[in-house]
Amino acid sequence: MFPFQKKLTNGFYAVLSLPVTAVGFSLSTQVAVLSWILNTKYNLHIEDVALVWLAGPISGIIMQPIVGMISDKSWFWGGRRKPFIAIGGILGTLMLIGLVNIDAISHLVGGHSVFIIAVIVALLLDMSINVTFNPARSIIADVTPTGVSRTKGYSWMQVLSGSFTIGAYFISVVFGNIFLIYVAAVLVFLFSIVPLFFIKEPKVLQVNTTNYPRQKTSFIKGLKIVLPLYGFIFYAIFIACNKVLLSGKWDAYQTILFYICIVITIILGIFIILKGRKSQSNEIEFQKILLAHSFTWLGLQSMFVMIFFYVQEKIIPVVAHKKIIANSFSSFFTGNITDAEKSAGNILSLGLLIFNFVAAILPVLVLEPLTKRKGKIKTYIIALSWLVIGYGFLYLLGTAELNFYIGMFICGIGWSAVISIVFAIMSEKVDASKMGLYMGLFNFCIVFPSMMTVGVSKIINESKNQSTLFLITCIALLISVIFWLFVKEENNTVQ
Question: Which residue ranges form the domains of the chain, and what is each CATH number?
Fold first, then answer.
């Protein structure tokens, strides 16, 4: 073990965070370029692109629990997580390069359809992200003691990952998407492979057998654990069947079923909370976290998917005859005059830069010290409350360009905690010997709410007002905050 790992120095936390940073940069690059390159370079229609994107959530549902469970029980190449990080990093690097060479790959394998090759490359890129993400987050819990040290580990994870996410958007705007893809390929390889030479995993994890009695993992057990998500899961199954198998024949039922599934989830949540009052256990606490975080992600994913349309409909008409701040920002770095067609994209990109900049600097500077005084749960609730405020501000005043950036700044405070503290909280509620499995199950409360955004888009279209987006997200985050109030704080002071 290297001295900086034994002493848990800031340098070690930085190295430990690089594999997650690699995944985050790969994911940011995918978000920035996948639809663009499939449409503009390979001429795929929007329906084909949508089918490719659907693979992401499905891949996450399948791969993350499986990879997590396998890594919990395996040991080869000097670790239980490191081999999967290496495999995912190499695969991700190859697929990023493959994105800009799909036509060449098609020719190399005998002239097969560009669409088929594009789907395979995109699927393998998604797979690489899902293979790497779980072990990259789990290894932080494996090599840090519970308490402040683990919180610091996940705070550093967010600082580095968030900083490079900002860099991805910046590179995309200034140097273009093709350049971004090649930069991503280099960084993903280096950040996935090099840190593994400096991190030593414990071959035997220290587990409290009193709090976590030995139980065999089973599919039925997993179904019981994700009980609070049944409403979201049912809606996700409906959407998958309706879009893929029935070609949208049940679209008319999307809105009413959305409300029904939300009500079912809330009822199940109340049931879990009442059950926890009668009999406390870490499994119930984990279920409470699944419940609360699912509503957090419903609000966040809805914003990510539909905020461009809000900018296009609500902000562009207001700033049409004014000097646009985002265009001036872009011109400063590129030296080019931005035309009107790119204004919406520039406004959104600048908003996301501000959003991610705040999220990158707050964990270590503010959130980590605050957790020492207030505890992780209270700090997290405070941060989420800022998301509620930010969404409320955007709903009421977000149509002005400057107000939009202010709203994104406020929301960034909450986002900083969502992708840092929550992992520290969750990791202390589960059996350390099954960290990979639980990280995979935890991913369910991100993936299934993400598929609920189809219903959110339907509601917004029916309202004929894109501002409805922020009303829905505000309500979702408020419900999340309420459920988080019932999660028990760990009285853990281990450094």
Answer: 8-199 (1.20.1250.20), 228-489 (1.20.1250.20)
The helix/strand/coil state of 487 is coil
Integer-rounded Cα radius of gyration of the chain: 22
How many CB atoms lie under 10 A from the CB of residue 124? 18
The predicted-structure confidence for 322-361, as pLDDT tens digits, reads as follows 788 888 887 777 776 666 557 877 788 788 888 988 888 8
Distance CA 61, CA 448 (A): 8
- In 194-338, DSSP assigns E strands to none
CA distance 406 to 136: 33
- 3-state SS assignment for residue 144: coil
Checking if the pLDDT of 408 tops 80, the result is: yes
Q: What are the DSSP E strand ranges found in 340-450? A: none
First CA to last CA across the chain, in angstroms? 19
Residue 487 makes CB contacts below 8 A (sequence gap 6+) with 285, 288, 289, 292, 377, 425
Q: How many helices (H) and strands (E) does the chain have?
A: 22, 0
User: What are the respective helix, strand and coil percentages of the chain, to the nearest 5?
Assistant: 80, 0, 20
More confident residue, 42 or 128: 128
What residue has token string 């329906």? Answer: 47
CA gap 239, 251 in Å, rounded: 9
Name the burial class of residue 15, with classes exposed (0-12), middle (13-18) and buried (19+) by CB atoms within 10 angstroms of its CB. Answer: buried
∠ CA 97-176-41, rounded to 5°: 60
Amino acid in the structure at residue 393: F
Burial of 165-196, coded b for 16+ CB within 10 Å and e otherwise, reads bbbbbebbbeeebeebbebbbebbbebbbebb
| The most confident of 374-383, 447-456, 473-482, by mean pLDDT | 473-482
Query: How crowded is residue 213: how many other Cβ atoms within 10 Å of its Cβ?
Result: 8
pLDDT tens-place string over residues 370-390: 888 888 899 999 999 999 999
Given this model, what pLDDT does residue 147 score? 80
pTM: 0.79
Q: Are 39 and 46 in contact (CB under 8 A)?
A: yes
Our CA angle for 482, 291, 409, nearest 5°, is 60
Q: Following DSSP, what letter does each residue of 154-177 receive, concatenated? A: HHHHHHHHHHHHHHHHHHHHHH-H
208, pLDDT greater than 60: no
Please give the distance of CA 433 from its chain centroid, rounded to a whole number.
24
Which amino acid, 430? Answer: V
131 and 87 Cβ atoms separated by less than 8 Å: yes
